[in-house]
Amino acid sequence: MSTVVSKFGGSSVANAEQIRKVAAIVRDDPRRRVVVVSAPGKRSKEDEKITDILISCHARAAAGKDFRPRFALIRERYASIAADLGLGNDLEPVLDEVEASIAGGADDSAVVSRGEYLGAHLIARFLGAEFVDAAELIRFANSTAIDDAATDHAVRERLGGNGVVVIPGFYGAHADGRVQLFSRGGSDISASLIARALGAERYENWTDVSGLLSADPRVVTDPDPIAEVTYHELRELAYLGANVFHDEAVAPVADANIPIQIRNTNEPGHPGTMITSGASAEPRPAGTRTGVAGKTGFAGVLVKRSMLSKISDLPGQLGSVLGGAGIRLHHCALGSDSALAIVESAALDAAGVGVLKEIETLFSAHSVERTGPYALVGAVGTDLAVVPEVLGTVLTAFAAAKLPIHFVSSGYSRSSFIVAVDEDRYQEAIWQVYAATA
Ligand code: ADP
Ligand code: ASP
Ligand code: MG
Q1: With 80 as the cut, is the pLDDT of residue 281 above it?
Q2: Which of 243, 315, 380, 404 is deepest in the core (most CB within 10 A)?
Q3: Taking the domains of the chain in order of start, what are their residue ranges?
Q4: pTM of the model
């Protein structure tokens, strides 16, 4: 029988009521044999995700502070879900172990992954399904790269049966058994790797919106839904900041040509968004916008020196100094007497002013200055970057709104462009790009 891999995000498993919806969805189709779950997420806007509470427990313990009152919230949360589902609370011994491991200085992966681990245990029991630990399936080659062959092999060996299995997302393990987390939102990646290994018929990503929308619904009121999109467009939108789907989760299933379907646990009758290679889709006219997205939290590193452009391999050297300080170079603009690197503000904060001094010395610069804070906003669509009217209309709209632009990047792909604006005008900039590309 063919298999559908179904991943349920944090809001889909946040409480007993949501978990009942998950059970109904799983039981509705016998192909839904492989279920991947996130840790319980927010039940309301003011609520906290289990993952965030675990992160704060680990940070408090590392700083020598009392983490136990925070950990009590985690105990309460699982106990109330278990009680509401009519299950006994036999997670207590595991919770005791997690608490002891935090007190004993366990690393963040070992601690933070327990949100998914505990939740998957509960859901497996409620479904009468088998729990399979992700540490047995997802194999890391190092802290950032997956050992694809080992992962494919383990998944095929372990999930070869016909019964329903529930697997925690967000982590895997090294060959020596040490648990390793993905980045935030990483359960999307776990399910994608499992779908690829199994040659699944479809990868369903169940969340709290009815598919990919043409803008973040928290910023734009009622953005148009997107019925179909290509892997490439989804990856570009996710990269720009459409965090409904992790950008690293696209490649595994795209390589195997497995369709992704983003769907709503709260509206299971809605088809959501289907993501494919687009090979069989009707071509759309050039200039058709698919979506708009963006992110806050960027800063500039502005390097000034006369004839800076004569330095060979300037971007390479700049990128390597920044990279050495743990700062990823997102974008770079080069001119005759200056260069601007766009980086994440938090990484620059963490590195301190030493890195600016290092750049100044390396290039014998006249000055190295931090600029921003910026937000990056952009759009993705069919040949969007090469139809002149599109970017022209966006820039005209920005001019009318007196919205200064600090950086533009277009031409890195035919389908998208990015502009940097003042961070405090992020939402307005998203609206302007959305309206100008409609
Ligand atoms: P999950 O916990 O199910 O993985 P996420 O919070 O990661 O869910 O992603 C779903 C959220 O992504 C939505 O509630 C929505 O607010 C946000 N989002 C941002 N951009 C988009 C977009 N373009 N389309 C749909 N949702 C978006
Ligand atoms: N629970 C993790 C997070 O909050 C992973 C995920 O939900 O995909 O980031
Ligand atoms: Mg997510």
Answers
A1: no
A2: 380
A3: 7-204, 289-436
A4: 0.92
362 pLDDT exceeds 90? yes
Q: Which of 187, 190, 248 to mutate to test the pocket of ligand 2 (most atoms within 8 A of CB)?
A: 187
Distance of alpha carbon 93 from alpha carbon 99, whole angstroms? 10
pLDDT score of 280: 73
Examine residue 283 and say whether the peptide bond preceding it is cis (omega within 30 degrees of 0): no
Domains 7-204 and 289-436 are alike in CATH topology? no
Q: Alpha-carbon distance 24 to 292, whole Å?
A: 33
Residue type, 264: N
Mean pLDDT of all residues belonging to the chain:
96
Give the integer Cα–Cα distance in Å for 147 and 165.
Answer: 22
Q: Which residues line ligand 2 (CB under 6 A)?
A: 9-10, 38-39, 49, 51, 115, 169-170, 184-188
Q: Which amino acid is at 341?
A: A
Region of 292 (left: φ > 0; alpha: ψ -120 to 50; beta: rest) is beta
To the nearest 10°, report the CA torsion of 306, 309, 310, 311. Answer: 100
Helical pair 68-84 and 114-127, crossing angle rounded to 10 deg: 10
**What's residue 428's pLDDT?**
98
Pocket test for ligand 1, best of 50, 182, 216 (most atoms within 8 A of CB): 216
Dihedral of alpha carbons 25, 30, 36, 39, sign: positive
As a CATH number, domain 7-204 is: 3.40.1160.10
The domain defined by 289-436 folds into: VC0802-like (3.30.2130)
